[in-house]
Amino acid sequence: MVSQPALIILDHGSREPAANALVMQIVSRVKIRRPDSIVEPAHMELASPSLDEAVSACQNQGAQSIAVLPYFLAPGRHTQETIPQQVAEIAKRYPDLEIRIAEPLGCHDSLVDLLLDRAEALGESFRR
Question: What is the extent of the structural domain holding 78?
Answer without folding.
Answer: 6-126
